[in-house]
Design brief:
globular, alpha/beta, Rossmann fold
Length: about 260
C-alpha cells in the first residue's frame, strides 16, 4: 500500500512507546493518523504534534472502541491501516509461596482476565471493527482494501516466570494471525503480527540503568534494547509490501528469553 495523505490510519496505544513511534512514522509519510489511548494528556499533545486526532479509549470497552472509531472516521474518513499496540502486563506466578510463612497463593484470576481482556480481546475487538469498515471501501490495486498490524511479544514463544497471563494473551494473538488472514483474504485485507523483544519504551526505562544494562547484555546482537523506531520501520514495511500477509515476525536482536 502506498502511504500518502489519501490514507487514514488508527494506532492503538499510540500515545507512547511502539505505538507513538509508528504513528509518527506514518504521519511523516502524510498519512492521517488517529491515536487511540487512555493517556489523554500525552495523547492530545502528540496528536496535535502530528496533525492527527486523539481518541480517549480503553480497548477493553466495546462502547469506547465504537465511539473512538466514529470520531476517527469523522475526522479522517475510513481507515485503511490499523496498528494495534495497546496492551498491559500483569506479572504473577501461577502458584506462589511466601518466603516468611510458606503460605501458598495462586495467580489472581481477576488479573488474568484483565490481561486477556485488554491484550487479546481488545486487539481482536479493534481488528473486527476496523476490518468491517475496510471491507466497505473501494479496492485499490490488485483488490487491496486495508492492512492490519498486531503486536504480540517474544513472550508468546519464550514466556518467563510470572508471565502466564501475558504469554497466553500474546500467544493467542500469534495464533489468530493466519486464520484471520484467511478470513479476510476475499475482502482484500492483510494482517501480520510483530513479536518485539526488549524495547526501550518509557515504561522499560523506569526500571533504571542497572536493569536496562543487564537486559541489554542478554541480547546476542546488537547488545542493546530495541528502539521504537525499529518497530515502526518493520510495521511500515509490512504495510507497504503488498505480499506480506499472514506472518508472525520476531524483532528481538536474536534473543531467546531465559526462564527468569
Amino acid at each position: 500500500m502506498k502511504l500518502n495523505s489519501s490514507v487514514a490510519a488508527v494506532v492503538t496505544g499510540g500515545a507512547s512507546g511502539l505505538g507513538r513511534a509508528t504513528a509518527a512514522a506514518l504521519a511523516e509519510k502524510g498519512v492521517k493518523v488517529a491515536i487511540f489511548d487512555l493517556n489523554v494528556e500525552e495523547g492530545e499533545a502528540f496528536a496535535a504534534e502530528i496533525s492527527g486526532t486523539f481518541c480517549a479509549v480503553n480497548v477493553a470497552s466495546d462502547e469506547q472502541v465504537d465511539a473512538a472509531f466514529r470520531k476517527a472516521r469523522k475526522a479522517h474518513g475510513q481507515e485503511r491501516i490499523l496498528v494495534n499496540c495497546a496492551g498491559i502486563g500483569g506479572p504473577a506466578k501461577t502458584v506462589s509461596r511466601a518466603r516468611d510463612t510458606g503460605a501458598l497463593s495462586h495467580f489472581p484470576l481477576d488479573l488474568f482476565e484483565r490481561v486477556i481482556q485488554v491484550n487479546l480481546i481488545g486487539t481482536f475487538r479493534s481488528v473486527v471493527k476496523s476490518a468491517v469498515g475496510m471491507a466497505a471501501l473501494d479496492p485499490l490495486e490488485e483488490g487491496h482494501r486495508g492492512v492490519i498490524i498486531n503486536t504480540a511479544s517474544v513472550a508468546a514463544e519464550d514466556g518467563q516466570v510470572g508471565q502466564a497471563a501475558y504469554t497466553a494473551s500474546k500467544a493467542a494473538i500469534v495464533g489468530m494471525t493466519l486464520p484471520v488472514a484467511r478470513d479476510l483474504m476475499s475482502e482484500g485485507i492483510r494482517i501480520n503480527t510483530i513479536l518485539p523483544g526488549i524495547f526501550s519504551t518509557p515504561l522499560m526505562m523506569t526500571a533504571g540503568d542497572k536493569v536496562v544494562d543487564a537486559l541489554s547484555a542478554m541480547v546476542p546482537f546488537p547488545k542493546r534494547l530495541g528502539r521504537p523506531d525499529e518497530y515502526a520501520a518493520l510495521a511500515l514495511a509490512m504495510i507497504e509490501n503488498d505480499y506480506f500477509n499472514g506472518e508472525d515476525v520476531r524483532l528481538d536482536g536474536g534473543i531467546r528469553m531465559a526462564p527468569r
